[in-house]
Amino acid sequence: MRLSLALLLACLAPALAATASTDRSRRLTQIINGYPAASPDGRQVVFQSNRTGRYELYVMNVDGTGVRQLTDLAGDNVTPDWSPDGRRIVFAATRDNASDVFIVDVDGKNLKRLTHSPGDDEHPHWTADGTRIVFDSARTTPDPSAAWETQWHEVFSMRPDGTDAKAHTQHRALCTYASLSPDGRRLVYRKAVPGPAFRWDLSPSERNSEIVVADADGSNEINVSRNAAFDGWPRWSPDGRRIVFASNRAGPAGVGQIYVVDADGSNLRQVSKGPWSHAQPAWAADGKRVYAYQVQEDEQGEFGNVVEWVVEP
C-alpha cells in the first residue's frame, strides 16, 4: 500500500481527536475534502471542499501539492468528474433550492449550466468516449416536495451541451450515482430496494442500499453487493471488468470501507482498512489505484481528506 501526502497529513488527526475527547475541547473546524476524481493523465485530482464555508471545487497534484480553487460560485458545488480529454469538469451545484448539472473548463472558464429541471439533477459522470454525461434526476417523481429519499431518482444521460436528455431507467425508485461501462453497454448505480437493512450508522432501515449492474436501458439488473449494509458510490474500472464501491458491512457504526467486485458480482475483496471510514471512491486511469474520501464522524460532526489506495490485482 502506498499512501499519498494527503493521507500522511490526515493520519495525524486520530491523535488530535483522542486528545479532544479527554480535554473537553470543542472542535471548531469541520473541513471536508471529498468526492475525488483523477485526471485522465493521472497527474491531478479534482475534489470538493468546504474550507471557505461552502463547497467549492479544487484541483491538486496527486501528491497533495499545488492546490488551487477551481470554482467561486454561490451555493454548493459538488461531485466533480473529469472529462476523458482532460479539458473539462462536470459537477452538480445548488441553485434556486435545487441541484443542477454544470460544466466548466479546468482553468475555471466557460461555466455553463446544463440542466434546468424542477427536480434535483445530481452526481454527473462522463462516458468513456466523452460524448455523453450520465446523471440521476428526480424530474419524473410525482411529488418533488417529498423527502429526497422517497422521490423517484432515475438514470439519465445527455450530451455535454445539455441537449438530447434521455432516460435509461424507469424503476420508480431511488437510483443514484450511475455511470456507463467503458463500452457503453451496461450501467452501474446505487439502488434503494425494499427490505430490512441498515443505514450508515447501522440503525435499522426498511430500504436496502445496493449496487446494481444493468443493461444500458435498465433491464436485466444484477445485484452485485448483496448485503443488508449500506452499499454506495459505485464506479466502473477503466477496463470495465470491476466495480469499486463503499460499504459499512464490516462496521462499526459510521465506518465504511472500499471494496472491489467483479462486474458479475463475484470475487469481492476489501481495499481500505483501518479505524478511519472511507467512501466516495474513484479509479485512477491506470486501474491500479483508487482515490477516496477518508473521514471521521462523531457527535461533533465529520471531517476528512482525499487519500489514495493501491488496488491489488
TrEMBL record:
Keywords for this protein: Signal
- Report the coiled-coil segments: none
InterPro entries per the record? Answer: 6-blade_b-propeller_TolB-like, WD40
Q: Does the keyword Signal apply?
A: yes
The superkingdom listed in its UniProt entry is Bacteria
Entry similarity comment:
Belongs to the TolB family.
Task: Indicate what this protein is called per its UniProt record.
Answer: WD40 repeat protein
Source organism of this protein record: Tahibacter amnicola
- Provide the organism lineage as a comma list: Bacteria, Pseudomonadati, Pseudomonadota, Gammaproteobacteria, Lysobacterales
